Structure formats: C-alpha cells, structure tokens
C-alpha cells in the first residue's frame, strides 16, 4: 500500500524546486525588463539633454543675430536706408548711369567712397560673443526704357550683365581706394546684377531711380573655418 506521508513528501520535493525555478525565471525576466527600461530611460535622457543643448545653442545664436541686426542700424543715415519689407539696405547715393553704360561718373565717386568706408567701419565695429561672418551682397540694377520701347525686350538678357558690371565697378572702385573687402576674414562678398527685375523696384515715374545699388548684409553666427 502507498504511504500517504511518503507521497506528500515526494510532492513537496517536486514542488519547491519547481517553485524556485519559476521564481528564478520571473526574477531574470524582471531583471531583463528593468535593465531594458533603464537603458531606454538613459537613452531618452541623453536625447533630451542633446535637444536642450541644441535649443540653447539656437537661442544664443538668435540672440547674437538680433544684436547684430540692431548694430547694423548704425548704417542708416546719409548713405544707407534700411528697407524692412525686403530686409536689406539701399545705397542712398543717387547714382545715375548713362543708358546702357556701366561706368561710374566722377561726380558720384566721393559719396560712394564714403559709403564704402561707412559700411566697412560698421561691420568691423560690431562686437559679438561668438564668431560671426558677414555675407555682403552688392547688387547692381537697371532701369527699363519707357513702356512700349522695343529695347525692353531686345536688351532684357544683356541688362543682367550690365547691372552686374555696374556692381563690379563699384567694388573695383572701392578696392582701388583702399577698401578691399576681400581681405577681411569675416566678410564674404558676393556681386550680383538683377537687370530689369528684382524685388523692391521703383515703379511708374520713378523707374529711372532703379539705376542704383542695393547692399544686403546677412550675418552668419558660428565657428569660422
């Protein structure tokens, strides 16, 4: 006959090892889940720190750009006027070119030279907490002929070259008089010509005033190569 006490002892002998194995397995599973959750938390914490660092850097950069823009207000006056709608400066020297020509007449040169000196002085005087480089765009423009004049269509493409040469002549004139912006490490100079087109043009009776120069200064904050 089977001994009930013996059977009960055998069941207990099987139960406890199985129970210990089950608890051990659960512990291992919980440990793995804990380690995995901890890793996810640390990864997320690292991403948040990186995001906060990037946001802080962007905020500091924006602060510097705002400070620079306020400093560029010193350009406004006798030689420059700020155009808020197009976010650029217009050279106020009333340069007039002969039709189809790119030579700068002597009468305008003293004022143009002083305008160049003002531009360079202001850019070099701006103090910032971070390195800054200025992208300076000098754009030449051209005026259309009266409405209906066939030269508007015939010379449409060549006026791009004409307005570019006008801007180039201005830069060469400055350079000949000791204003070589290319030697300034923190200034990157671009010359352009918009011909009969471009934003912010004068219309109607003021069409002739489009024979002018536009100066656009774009600050770039950050490490300089």
From TrEMBL:
InterPro entries documented for this protein: OmpA-like_sf (IPR036737)
Alphabetical UniProt keywords: Coiled coil, Membrane, Transmembrane, Transmembrane helix
Residue intervals passing through the bilayer: 20-41
Xref: Gene3D superfamilies: OmpA-like domain
Originating species: Hymenobacter lapidiphilus
Source organism, top-level taxon: Bacteria
Coiled coil, from the record: 45-78
Protein name per the record: OmpA-like domain-containing protein
